[in-house]
Amino acid sequence: MGDLTGRTVVVTGASSGIGLAASVDMARRGxxxxxxxxxxxxxxxxxxxxxxxxxxxxxxxxADFARLDDVHVLVDHLRQRYQRIDVLANNAGGVVAGQSRxxxxxxxxxxxxxxxxxxxxxxxxxxxxxxxxxxTASAAHAMGTIDPSDLRGEHKAGMWKxxxxxxxxxxxxxxxxxxxxxxxxxxxxxxxxxxxxFGAGIGVNLMTKVTPFAKTPEQGADTLVWLVATPRPQLVSxxxxxxxxxxxxxAQTEDAQLAARLWDASMAAVGF
Length: 272
Hints:
Layout: E1 8-12, H1 17-28, E2 32-37, H2 40-54, E3 60-62, H3 68-81, E4 87-90, H4 108-123, E5 132-136, H5 159-180, E6 185-190, H6 204-210, H7 217-229, E7 240-242, E8 245-247, H8 256-270
């Protein structure tokens, strides 16, 4: 992976874990990294780490993706500051226990993992021309079944099935974006089982600390940084990657008709 000097990279979920590790690595390679995170304290700490790696203070914006209004405010800031964004790393997300709705009326896991990033990508469409969109997905996509007609969670499903469905949405979004936006290189990837704050509210992060095969955030971020830094002709737009290799997701996630239905349902959900 080479030099990223002159590239503007917006990373969501950048205040800890994979997002922070990727931001530090890319800043070290010369990228102008823009940090987006939910927690003000962790975001401030992340700024310090990225500044130390890159030698300049990165812009940082607080946004809670459980609120779509926060996405609109974030976009207002980014549009004012940047005419061009080279890469949008849709990395924010998590798993939410229990049955609930966001203030926007959606199931929280699908909103924080998919709808918010989908909205952000669409609102930044002009800034991203000839750039890249990279979605953090997961092998957990095989555990769920996305239903484009039920983004509000009317049909109750278990926590991990909801998470799997949201990760399916990440992969389907990347594939459909490649078809609809051919000028943008779009991809998704599986980071592996990573020691991070993921699932902190339900104890998953504690499990990663005692699991011998769990990756460090730096290891989990490797494919993300690789997808940002690798020359475009060497990548397959719409592809799903793991360990820097193009792999096939499960059969449902390769369904182009499902991807188109999800895109249309997501557009309606976020108000387009």
